[in-house]
Batch of 2 targets.
Target 1
Amino acid sequence: MQTNEQLLSVIENYLAQTELPAEPELLYAPIGYSLSGGGKRLRPMLVMLSCGIFSDDALQALPAAAAVEMFHNFTLLHDDIMDNAAVRRGKPSVFARWGQNVAILSGDAMMISSYRLLSGVPPRLLPQILATFNEMALEVCEGQQYDMDFEMKPKVSVVDYMHMIELKTSALLSGAVAIGAMLGGASEEDCRKLRRFALELGLAFQLQDDLLDSYGDEELGKAIGGDILEGKKTYLMVTAMSRADEPTREVLRRTYRDERLTDAEKIAAVKRIYDRLDVRHLTEQQISLRFDRALAVLGSLSVDPARTLRMREYAESLVDRKK
Amino acid sequence: MQTNEQLLSVIENYLAQTELPAEPELLYAPIGYSLSGGGKRLRPMLVMLSCGIFSDDALQALPAAAAVEMFHNFTLLHDDIMDNAAVRRGKPSVFARWGQNVAILSGDAMMISSYRLLSGVPPRLLPQILATFNEMALEVCEGQQYDMDFEMKPKVSVVDYMHMIELKTSALLSGAVAIGAMLGGASEEDCRKLRRFALELGLAFQLQDDLLDSYGDEELGKAIGGDILEGKKTYLMVTAMSRADEPTREVLRRTYRDERLTDAEKIAAVKRIYDRLDVRHLTEQQISLRFDRALAVLGSLSVDPARTLRMREYAESLVDRKK
């Protein structure tokens, strides 16, 4: 089987060669722009690696992998309208570059294109793969809606937050590995286990994303404290809210819109509370816990453990454990 | 086979029973609201009637018919955002009632739901039906983009206008009859012919819609002259532009935003030009021509002509020919 670097390059080539009509330009140009914007290609990698666990021909999963990546990019396109986000992966978002209507409609065309790619799977597997894809796609929408709902709520529990990211982040990873496994010929039992693996991996991955926003390295490209300045409910924030006394909660609720404070002061104030409540450490613990669970499930598949090595390495490259 | 009234009522029941989760409410409530908004159910009727030409069991096409109607309602939901339309079928649009973000995301979930309904077709037909659905769906997006492009263009030819409505209106009707025919067991040749039928019917139907906006009966619910007041490029407008001399064109281009005129005066001014250029009559001729072509193709199917009677009656109920 190809190395992970080779798989990544095969995916990039396949996406770059996905043929899009030239006209109408405002419908299709944003799709090419969005697809060429880079990113980790995490989801198609999971499709390919999952297929490779059960089959020596991981490349057969390429159309489905591209479908999943196309769908993911569609969600980013529409999310950027809803979040009013002008920048995506260091470039203007489609929304910022072409405006709202183009972003809505080319996003729609992008979702349809993902189903078109998906229709390239072997006909005998199409019914179950389409059903899995649909379920996954709806869950991602549910997650995005809950995420938007949370911004309007004064209080969100840790349990509700975890449920939201299970839908918004893990569902797509879970669907990706399930589709890869089906294509590779996995048993239903192994398919279920891989979904559990991806679910836990997705939680670890999202919590790490939340953590890096407050405690990451600015050189890695992401500005520190953006979530705090937006008053966003992250794992860190909902954990802090659940552990704080009422006066501290009030500070957490208000700091981000306190006009007397500079951005740096707001970030410092919230992080002081996080530190006092041990939020960083608790988040790191949760990431480790979820990641360990993911690896344990991966190890329980009914295949020669050597076949899961590449997936394990890939998962380890995604999540940085601090114990 | 059921009468057309019975088919309609079966479709309404099926749509009403389509199960939607209760939560998150802002994702799913707009879907139920949109689906229950009525309308002619033209597209699902075409799926059922097309299936009924080839099979005595038209009801087998119900999930696919619902999928096509769900998709159509999704397009209305997103079109209303793009067109900033506050009213849909006499009720507030989803966009007006719940806001833009809810309309975007519940529209997305609605499109996914249409694919979920589609996945209920017999597995052996799924690959070709999914491919047909995807092609149709992309064409509808292309049509909507051309329609938006046209609003920015000083001049649109009649040929370009017809191409746009082939995509925006006819593609969905053509996909609907093709899917119905496949489910009924039609030959490829009959399937192609039915698509041609639906394409011509769709053109007649859209041109009639354009005509009614300027020459319809206000009692039928649609206000007269809305397209004229919006400066919209309809078949009447592009035909008038193609026949007018330059000074008259300038009047046509400017009247709708002439602030010295009342709405009634704007409408009267444009219709005077239409009348002078024989636009009404030419449009009626084009509707008859397209409708006659549709019926001729319908008559050429390789089935007992009695089997096409119901489809013929239904088509006749849609288009009012003035000869």
Note: The first helix of chain B runs from residue 4 to 17.
Target 2
Amino acid sequence: MITVQQAEDIILSQTQDFGIEDIAYEHALGRVLAEDLTADRDLPPFDRPTVDGIAIRYAAYEKGSRSFPVKAIQSAGEASIPIDSETECIEIMTGAALDHSVDTVIRYEDISIDNGMANVSIDIKKGQNIHLKGRDKKEGNILVQANQIISPAIIGIASSVGKTTIAVKKLPKIIIISTGDEMVSPESIPSPYQLRRSNGITIKSALKKYHLEADILHLNDDYEEIKKEISRCIHEYDVLLISGGVSMGKFDYLPQVCEELGIEKLFHKIKQRPGKPFWFGKNQHQKLVFAFPGNPVSVFMCLHRYFIPWLEKSLEIQGNSPQFAVLQNDIEVPFALQYFVQVKLGTNQLGQLTAESVHTNGSGDFSHLADTNAFMELPLEQNSFKKGEVYRVWKYND
Amino acid sequence: MITVQQAEDIILSQTQDFGIEDIAYEHALGRVLAEDLTADRDLPPFDRPTVDGIAIRYAAYEKGSRSFPVKAIQSAGEASIPIDSETECIEIMTGAALDHSVDTVIRYEDISIDNGMANVSIDIKKGQNIHLKGRDKKEGNILVQANQIISPAIIGIASSVGKTTIAVKKLPKIIIISTGDEMVSPESIPSPYQLRRSNGITIKSALKKYHLEADILHLNDDYEEIKKEISRCIHEYDVLLISGGVSMGKFDYLPQVCEELGIEKLFHKIKQRPGKPFWFGKNQHQKLVFAFPGNPVSVFMCLHRYFIPWLEKSLEIQGNSPQFAVLQNDIEVPFALQYFVQVKLGTNQLGQLTAESVHTNGSGDFSHLADTNAFMELPLEQNSFKKGEVYRVWKYND
């Protein structure tokens, strides 16, 4: 049986490039940016007042002028208005384009205007209250680097620079396949020995964060049906995310079916709890099969610990650093498997992320998935974990 | 001029209840749950083996039996199969419903089966490897509490309990209005004294996190047009989110227009940077106007510091605790305003959230909104902030 680290290494060695497509910027939120966004002109594109008031030529003030005839009022969006003589001023609004004949702006709060004369009674500095052309960025400078998830701020920047079509990463084509004769649809009334399905819709919902619209399929434990459908799906999709059918049961057909279809096993079983029977493979066309054990907690853990990192690395998403939290209670682990414990995250006033573990009844107990936020990964080498120790966490429910 | 805390108090005293609606669970991701989700039967609903193997009656083992004739193979999803005599066993799969005639399960790994006899050679415990009926939750117990954002895990739980229609909070009807003659559409080539609009699409994108689809409108600095449109919008929408037109400029008509339309000013101007000229009001029908100053950074700050908390409180979203981070560099603030500095968040191996401030050229400089993640709120009482100190942060770009 391999370790969690070995499993991660094998999975992350199978990342793939799904290409790039151009889409309208209004639809790009949440997609992965595939090009740098650059300034199409200097930012700001002109010298602009940062306040409402008057614009003067500082040389006149320096020579003693304190009253300036108002030549004109210039609003934002108008062509720049020059002064004709050094001692004139322009009433000017925030965001207007300053003319080269003026070089200093004084706020309305610091002047009075009477009979067309603006009177200045405070000390001023040359060049004050002006946001200079090109001060933030020069034309051609990078504003947003490629390989990050497109946020509201990035949409706003794209809009500012007229980038109305954006190159984004294409997403893999994914089907989620749940298995198990005991699983009925959520609309059904289950018999006393049946359960309603949830793994498919849970995974589908989790992938929406990446704007990935996965298909869903449920298969009963019928060998021929499973073989036929896996054979079809491995042709039609890039990735199969399967739950169930990979353990020791008499009807756990998946490993055998995959082998018969030429899907090479890259590993089966990891020294971890939950999720030990996880099976992972690929075929000769680099189609991948993530076959998770069927319990809801196992599926959720394997999805966040293995599939999401594979997806983020395939899409080349940068800037996600590992997250650590401070354990809030002692934990004893009475087995030799790397344990992923469900925790409730919080923050304290030291700016630390805190993690309080919850007691569960194993991987079939999904009743705490909604009131926890993360799995804390407790190292395999230890059995005893103490309050105050810091370990890595894998967030969900974000 | 009021303080940030006073502004927050005024805004949060204006929260509103927009009611509840029922929607299909497949469309509920990201909405706010308006009812508790409860277990429709015990969880698990039957005694279920947690491993694949054989089910026996412990009393037989206790009396010395080590070889058990296999009466039948029971898969998950089948009705329970009883043993006929105490010394028989059932081959049984994970997730099947255990019959009352058996009470202990032994894994395939710990037995051998020859000629229809299962041979046990290890020590076992009564009741082992069984996830007992009702062990996680009893019928009627709350699985998910109301007033939280519906996550993938909650969708999965809803599916499990057959809750295919879910009560969620209705969302307010919102229009985002940008103003300014200098602002042209992102598709346009601006003149040297024009800029492309971005505030509308930025706010609209930020609200999508709450599945809130806001309308967008741009108005030029035309008094009559502004008055006509604000008058229409205040009837048609619950909330107006406006950018620009609230400062000292000759064409900053909004405060006057609002007053003439009977929209009561609750405050104008806050002791903060950016965002000082923020205007907030309501009319007699509790319609709200958040009128932010027009610079992109001011809009972004006011949105996250004031509007989002108002929205989350109105929707009664629980469980969001304040976030704090450790400042990574010294900052001097040379003005008597509460400063919101843009920071890049990170985490360190102590589980602490870290915040590195970036230098910007004022509220018109939006070039750092994409490479930062939060505003750090630096207390008004101080001017000097040191590396290692911990302050509150308001996240964006999540």
Note: The CA atoms of residues 254 and 364 of chain B lie 20 Å apart.
